[in-house]
Structure formats: C-alpha cells, structure tokens
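Q: What does the predicted 3D structure of Pentatricopeptide repeat-containing protein look like?
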Amino acid sequence: MGKVDFRFAIIGNIVEGGYESDVLILTTLLRKLFKENRVKDAIKLFKEIKEIGYTCTNVTFGTMFDGLHKSGNVDKAFKLFQDMKSGNYKLA
C-alpha cells in the first residue's frame, strides 16, 4: 500500500467514524493525489468533500484547478473555474 493509499484510508475512517476532519488535511491529500498522477482519485475525493458538506477554501479550489490543468484536464479545470465564478461553490 502506497503512502497516499494509507492516508486515504485514514481519512476515510475518520469521516466514516463521524470524527471531524480538516479541509486543510483533505486539501493536502488532494495535492498528493495529483502529484502521484491519481487524477480520478483526486476528483473522487473532491466530490466527497463537497458531499460531506465541507466548505472548501480558495486553496482547495486552487489545488484542484492546478492539478486538473497540469494533468491535461483543461476542460475540467475550466468547468471548475466557471462553477466557482457562478457561485455554485461556497468558499470558506
């Protein structure tokens, strides 16, 4: 099991157990997933962050935008930017 897989499992246990996680921790995990070129996992985690009800920070969105753009997912990065601009997401 890789380092990110282990961290992902820990975060999953924290959330499933009803314990508080920190959006900063989740943003750091997003960054690591992109660094390991695990774009699908990063997108999945981002969706889960929203579903859980966390209010993302501008750093979270910046991490997603940067990761999507650098991984060649320019259309998804642009869609995220448009969604942010239209107010579909709340910033902390």
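A (community wiki): The structure tokens above were generated from the sequence. The chain has a mean pLDDT of 81. Residues 27 and 60 are 5 Å apart (CA to CA).
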